[in-house]
Amino acid sequence: MVDNKPMTSTRYMDEATMNKSHYKFLILLAFGYTFEQIDVFSFSFVAPALTKYWGVSMEWIGLVNSCTFVGMLLGCWLGGWFADRIGRRKTFLGSILLFSLCSLVNGGAPNQEIFLVARTLTGIGMMGMVVVAMVYIAELLPAASRGKWQAIALATALLSIPLIGQLASHIIPNNPEGWRWILYIGGLGFIVLAFGNNWLKESPRWLISKGRFKEAEAVIQFYRPDVKVDLSAEASGKVKEEKAQETTKTLEVLRLLFSKEYRKKTLVLINLVVWNTVGYFMFFAWMPTLLNEYGFSLEDSLWMVALVSFGSPIGNYLAAFFTDKGGRKVPIVIYGAIIGVLTVIFGTIKAPMLIVGIGFIIRILMDGVFVLMWSYLAEAYPTQFRSSGTGIIFSTGRILNVGAMAMVPLIYKQFGYSVLFAIIGAMYIMIAVVTGIWGERTAGRSLEEIAETDSNKTVSA
């Protein structure tokens, strides 16, 4: 059957076949994710060493975690705002520059005050990069496989976590300054900057939203050398740049997120982002310290966490096989329910190998939910406020994490180890229930189709 529909900018990108240019883009995004993940998790390995060698308290560790999430919160807002204002490419590269520089400062910090400031700034850069990267992938890759490639890029990045865990377990216990070298590794993000100027192109969807059709044509042609790209007909009916820019204002974006057309979707996404982010980081950011407090030695705690961390890339590679099936919604519901049960069990066991085994499975599933969430969120809103909206929704998890990181030692001391993990389990049950009842299926659909469906208020649950 002949398809007589005109070739629009949307169809050019959505119906593309993956080629060398797409793969180069993915390699850089994977490296960006890699150094962001190293920076996120390096502190969980470093924290027990700081309590031992710097003599800091659990409360100070909680303060560092909270300040990191304050930085992440700002990074979500600023990254989303800048990406809609100045473009995906510039914001992506600028964010990597920021967190790479601050990682080096963090590693060389002479005192607790400088460490705290550098860690906060690192958080800004990390989340600025993440917000734009998840949108960048959604906008540039084919509709039928964008979720798969999002998962594969993140899974490849997460291979670095067990590596960092192994390095930390060997370097930190034997050297009072070994923790600095773990933090220095995050500064290697400069590798991405070295190739980014040539390999990265601006998102054509963003260019079109700004009325820059000729530039968009050139980018689409770069990714689609197999066809002749012509957007002249589309350009004549599009909104001009000045009007499109109005939705980069934060208050306007907030109004749209909670408007009648998008309110249900926004609330479902907030529920997913908040409980997944808080639960994930309460579990893994504190795991080495909690195991140490629970009675295991520093060496054993790091060894156990390092083994569990191997579940991260496995979880994302597994998610890649079915993220474009079940519309994102079904896998999120199944994963959330299983995590809820296993996390409660985790808090009741004391045998080291059982802790490692169940923790390993939880890590696989939690990381799977995270990459599913990233695809789900990046697909949710129209191009004009996709990045800003993604940043605002993504930041809700960081807002609660600011308090949650400080609450962990209080919950632990007041109620104990088992109750703490039961609370985390309840968060994932909430994810499964709310997403299952009110979530929509988005996989394989055009981003513009998803947004148009919302505006017509016919989104199916």
UniProtKB/TrEMBL annotation:
SUPFAM superfamilies: MFS general substrate transporter. The chain crosses the membrane at residues 25-48, 60-80, 92-109, 115-137, 149-169, 181-200, 267-289, 301-320, 332-349, 355-377, 389-412, 418-438. GO terms for molecular function: carboxylic acid transmembrane transporter activity. It is found in: Cell membrane. This is Arabinose efflux permease family protein. GO terms for cellular component: plasma membrane. The keyword Protease does not apply. It is a multi-pass membrane protein. Keywords: Membrane, Transmembrane, Transmembrane helix, Transport. Residues 25-443 form the Major facilitator superfamily (MFS) profile domain. Its main location: membrane.
